[in-house]
Structure formats: structure tokens, C-alpha cells
Amino acid sequence: MKIILKSVLVLWVIVLIVGFMLPKEYEVSRSIIINADVASVHAYSEDLELWQQWQPWQDADPTVKIELGPITRGVGASQAWRGEGGDGELLFTQVQPNKGIDYDVWFNGKQDQAKGFLTYRAISNEETEVTWTMTGAVQTPIFGGYLALMMDNMVGPSFQLGLFKLRSLIETGQV
């Protein structure tokens, strides 16, 4: 019994030490090619009212309620949400029609902050690569590094789903 107890204690100490040493920063990124020009992609990306049609969060949490801010397009556009999965806010900080959108996002009552980016790259006149990226740091003591390691697997599939929905809406002419 002592050996088992000592083994568990040693394992727990190792988990703690590794947790302190792991980087807390993360970056999640997904890309997709859309058969449309940059202007068409931007028309759907710059307006938070239109985000409701392609963002993946309602699929993940059907209880989520989204409240749009007084500005829904361009710099200063904002939205807030609340659901069983948590709450948050989003604010567009930079909007460049030929390049993309930068935004700040806060989770859990503004305890956690991240930066988001939707970037466009014209491949041809009728093809655009869209990349959705989020960067941040998990501030949770000890386990933050472990959470940062899992962010790609936790957020990446949602980004990919959102990009698939965006592509479908644009390519079927529902802009």
C-alpha cells in the first residue's frame, strides 16, 4: 500500500512540475478555399448580423443567446453571448476589406482574453483562402499549460465547421 501511495504522490508531483513548465500560450488556426472573390468573402465576414448564419457556436451550445452591440459592421462592431457553455464578448478592432478582420474576444466575464483574426488571401479573381485564427494564453494556475495544449483540439473543429458553413453560404449565393 505504501508503494502505491508513494507512486501516486510522485506522479502527482510530476504532473504539477510539468504543468508549471508548459507554455500557457496557444494558437488555433484553420483555413479553407472559397470559390469567390475577396469582396464577397468580406461582405459576409464584416457584419456580425451575418455571422449568425455561419458561426459554429449555436451548433455547439443550442442554449446560447447572442446580443449584438449597437454597431454590427466595421471597427467597433460587437456582440455578447451567454449559454450553458459560458459567456463572452467580441469586439472588432481592425477591419481591412482586402485583408480581413482582427477582433478581441473575452470569456468568462472578461477573465480570459484572446485575439482573433479572419484573414483573406486572393488565390485568383474567383478564389480566396480564408484563415480563422485565435491566439491567447490560459491563465489557470498549474493546469493552464495542459489546457493550452488542448486548445487546438477543442476550438479547431469549431473553426473548421464555421468556415465550411461560410463557404457554403457564399458559394450558393446566399450573400
Automatic annotation (TrEMBL):
Name of the protein this chain belongs to: SRPBCC family protein
Spans traversing the lipid bilayer: none
Species name: Echinimonas agarilytica
InterPro entries membership: Polyketide_cyclase/dehydratase (IPR019587), START-like_dom_sf (IPR023393)
Stretches of the chain forming a coiled coil according to its record: none
